[in-house]
Amino acid sequence: MSAADVKKNAQDRMTKSLETLRGDLAKVRTGRAHTGILDHVTVDYYGSPTAISQVANLTLVDARTIGVQPFEKKMAGAIEKAIRDADLGLNPAAQGDMIRVPTPPLTEERRKEMVKLAKGEAEDAKVAVRNIRRDANEGLKKLVKDKAISEDDERRGTDEIQKLTDKFIADIDKMVSEKEKEILTV
Question: Which NCBIfam families match (predicted)?
């Protein structure tokens, strides 16, 4: 293992942390409807929990309504119940073979809670990035101890990993500020 391998590993892990944050922020509700709200809702499909997107087609009917079109008509009741029981504050209503899920507008207080939640997710991502930096620096120290690289290479590698960490933390801050704007937009 070389200093370049340590840096590449750290960069890959930091990228995964950023992707995880992107997914977590997608689940945070904004004032508008989006199908990502229902991503983690599971339905009992012939005895096994199945993601709602596997048993129904999710579409946006308008800016505040999600349309859920079950692939099998008999699944409509189970899907409706799963959405209601998911504790998302959504109240689905069946209209024929289509289930309409209106997303209620967020109150100012709820918007602030959502911003706080988004910032909490961002802080978790920053902690993950810093832990990856620590692991990478320990890897470089181990390479020096094993005499695989020189102390100058270690110092250079530590500086590069710090620059990488700063870049990813800036990306996290940018993502969360965009999400904050999105949440606070009425």
Answer: frr (TIGR00496)
Q: Per residue in 6-23, pLDDT tens? A: 999 999 999 999 999 998
Q: Which element (helix H / strand E) includes 90?
A: none
Q: Does domain 3-27+107-184 have CATH number 3.40.50.720?
A: no
Question: Do the Cβ atoms of 43 and 114 come closer than 8 Å?
Answer: no
Topology classification of domain 35-102: Gyrase A; domain 2 (3.30.1360)
Residue type, 50: T
Measure Cα distances from 130 to 3, 17, 21 in Å. Answer: 18, 11, 14
Classify strands 65-70 and 98-102 as parallel, antiparallel or unpaired: antiparallel
91 pLDDT exceeds 70?
Answer: yes
